[in-house]
Amino acid sequence: MQCSNQQIIPDMKNIKYIILVLIGLLGSTSCKKYLTVNPKTQMTQDVLFSTQGGFKDALTGAYIQFKSNTLYGQNLTMTTMEQLVSNWDVTSNALDQKLGLFNFTDATVDAQMTSIYSQEYTVISSINTILGQIDVNKSVFTTPGLYELIKGECLALRAYCHFDIMRIWGPIPSAIPTGNVMPPYVTVLSKVANPLISYSQYQTLLLKDLSDAEALLKTVDPILSYSLLDLGRPGSITVTTFNPTDTYFAYRYLRMNYYAVKALQARANLWFNKPADAYAAAKVVITATNPDASLKFRLGAASDMTAKDYALTCEHIFGIYDFALSTKYSNLFGNGTLKKGSAATTVTSGLYGSTGTDIREVNLWVLITQPNQAKPYVCQKYNVPAVAGSGIADLNRIPLLRLSEMYFIAIETTTDPVEAQSLWNAFRVARNVAASTVPADPLLLQTALETEYRKEFFAEGQAFFTYKRLNAPKANILWVPTAATPNYLFPMPKTESLATN
Question: Which residues of 309-330 are buried (b: 16+ CB within 10 A; e: fewer)?
């Protein structure tokens, strides 16, 4: 059998329409930072890719698709993936309850997951449109390093999307079936149907994209030479030496930068049970330094929470910029749409173990009063100022790769128990929780880290993937409904047409 993605993945006859969609997005979306571009109307592929500016605009359009609410602006961070592990209270017979019951055969659940699947491949198609032209038109790049930057980001973003497709629709890592069981790993736009492939083929293609991206970005990415603070204030020659001729090189923490590639390599290799490779990649991020020898990324602490930086942006290796995050917080959290319990102990005890000191326990949750006088607790991780800051102080960011995850990966994969304990201590000190001994038994260590993933990445969409990677039993899923039977194997969307031999 082969998977004919005609309904999901645009083919060559639709390239023109992909370009028009991208340009439409660029012209109609109010964006900040690297998303600031000039409005355009219809433009053919030949014209768009006849200048380096056209390549920049096309990649910006792909990022806009990537940060849509269907994907990382909401469903894969705040809502759908969190509802799968019952992190929010639910409405009877509604989509959120059906997700928490793992009712994957329900029509509304299928529609929700199909929209995510389709949008992931739409982003991939947009990226492949760029990659299909970038070497052919390499001569249009006149700014040194821009070709490598754009191509490296495209490869890394393509890998990011494919990795999450695999984490959702692929098998449990500890139980890989034989045969062609994986969704397509699409690298070119073609009229030919994209077949299902084997798990090992998928792994090879994904890791190759990341390796190629690393090689390209390692030679040009400003994040290797400047601090995040400097990258957020390009051209301010009175306070920084970062004065690029093209501000497309700025704000690297909002792009698939070199360290984001290393972080995704760490995450992917952990999934693929390649502990040595996962450890090596995570350590590159943990030990990354600025020219003054200070750490490039640091663990967030109580002072950050006091400053109302609830998402701990100092830890963000890669995130998306959402200029309307304050409004999104009000519409999803501030009004109680996404809430958890009416008693403080639901969260403080159930989630954090009633430490009384944990900076997440103390700062992230707030009691609100709804119009019906109900008083639920809501997470204020995305409670950002209505008036955005500037540069690195602009908190309108949703994290997708974070330093604390690199600590967890290194702790799990290091062969040195002394180092594991040191990393564990550093993390716990940052979160203001009591010291403890890292479990020596690998299974107990995984259970301890599973608990930390649940606490650390609340409202970031990572808990489901942690449970799936470890094939966690029902008892390990906090707040799971009594009637639920955990299932980590999503069926392929019904809109996928399967052609029989």
Answer: bbbbbbbbbbbbbbeebbebbe
What is the Cα–Cα distance from 360 to 460, expressed in whole angstroms? 14
- Give yes or no for a contact between 162 and 182, defined as CB atoms under 8 angstroms apart: no
The Cα–Cα gap between 42 and 238 comes to 41
Q: Parse the chain into domains and list their residue ranges.
A: 2-326+381-485
- State how far the Cα of 230 lies from the Cα of 445, in Å rounded to an integer: 38
What does pTM read for this prediction? 0.92
Distance of CA 9 to the CA centre of its chain: 21
**Which pLDDT band holds residue 190 (cuts at 50, 70, 90)?**
confident
Q: How far is CA 305 from the centre of its chain?
A: 22
Which candidate, 161, 170, 186, 118, places its Cα nearest to that of 494? 118
Tens digits of per-residue pLDDT, 265-307?
999 999 999 999 999 999 999 999 999 999 999 999 999 999 9
Helices 199-217 and 146-169 cross at an angle (nearest 10°) of 150
Is 289 exposed, middle or buried (CB count within 10 Å of its CB: 0-12, 13-18, 19+)?
Answer: exposed
Q: How many whole angstroms separate alpha carbon 419 and alpha carbon 431?
A: 19
| Calpha distance 376→390 (Å, rounded) | 33
- In the predicted structure, residue 32 carries a pLDDT above the cut 50: no
CA dihedral 269, 275, 280, 284 (to 10 degrees): 60
pLDDT value, residue 41: 40
Q: Which residues of 75-101 are buried (b: 16+ CB within 10 A; e: fewer)?
A: bbbbbbbbbbbbbbbbeeeebbbbbbb
* Side chain identity, residue 212: D
Q: Residue 367's CB: how many other CB atoms inside 10 A?
A: 12
3-state secondary structure of 401: strand
Burial class (CB in 10 A: 0-12, 13-18, 19+), 157: buried
Is the model's pLDDT at 39 over the cut of 50? no
DSSP H or E stretch at residue 96: helix 95-100
- Per-residue model confidence as pLDDT tens digits over 340-351: 999 999 999 999
CA distances to 135, 264, 286, 341, 455 from 279, rounded to whole Å, are 33, 12, 10, 38, 22
CB neighbourhood size of 431 (10 A): 23
Q: What is the pLDDT of residue 194?
A: 87
CB 395 within 8 A of CB 311: yes
Domain 2-326+381-485 is in which class?
A: mainly alpha
**Element (H or E) spanning 317, and its range?**
strand 316-321
